[in-house]
Specification:
Distance between the termini: 30 Å
CATH topology: Rossmann fold
Order of helices and strands: EHHHHEHEH
Largest sheet: 3 strands, parallel
Radius of gyration: 14 Å
CATH superfamily: P-loop containing nucleotide triphosphate hydrolases
Number of strands: 3
Strand content: 5-15%
Shape: globular
Length: 140
């Protein structure tokens, strides 16, 4: 599983708070995925990449030091998205990836996900009941 998880297939769970490790800083959780698949990257470099990825989804990079319980539901969902996309997986599976986000941020997060998809030539499997999201993913 370790060879496949995060690099080949990654999942963005609908409820991030159930998927994030409560006793690990979020920056360390994102870094861990990077370090498993890119052994040439130092711990410091991986953590810095985690900080940049957090910033990409609209989270202050200093929050990499925080624990999951210190985030709102929507912010923890963005952390989950960041973790899943950190290693540029060939197939991210997104189970209601933006259901807990405010309408104002949903579009931005979807754009980020679709840009990463285009940049790395991958697919994204969206699981959703959101009619608007279905139109976005189908047309992109």
């Amino acid at each position: 599983m370790r060879k496949i998880r995060w690099k080949e297939i990654a999942i963005i769970f609908q409820r991030a708070m159930n998927a994030l490790n409560p006793v690990m800083r979020v920056g360390d959780q994102i870094s861990k995925a990077i370090l498993v698949h890119e052994p040439s990257v130092s711990t410091k470099e991986a953590f810095e990449r985690a900080r940049k990825l957090l910033q990409l989804v609209g989270i202050d990079p200093s929050r990499a030091e925080n624990y999951p319980h210190e985030f709102s539901g929507g912010t923890s969902q963005r952390v989950m998205i960041t973790t899943a996309l950190a290693c540029n997986p060939k197939l991210p599976i997104a189970d209601e990836p933006v259901s807990m986000l405010d309408v104002s941020i949903k579009g931005e997060i979807l754009k980020i996900m679709l840009k990463k998809r285009e940049k790395h030539g991958t697919a994204i499997l969206f699981i959703t009941h959101d009619y608007h999201l279905q139109g976005t993913s189908a047309s992109a």
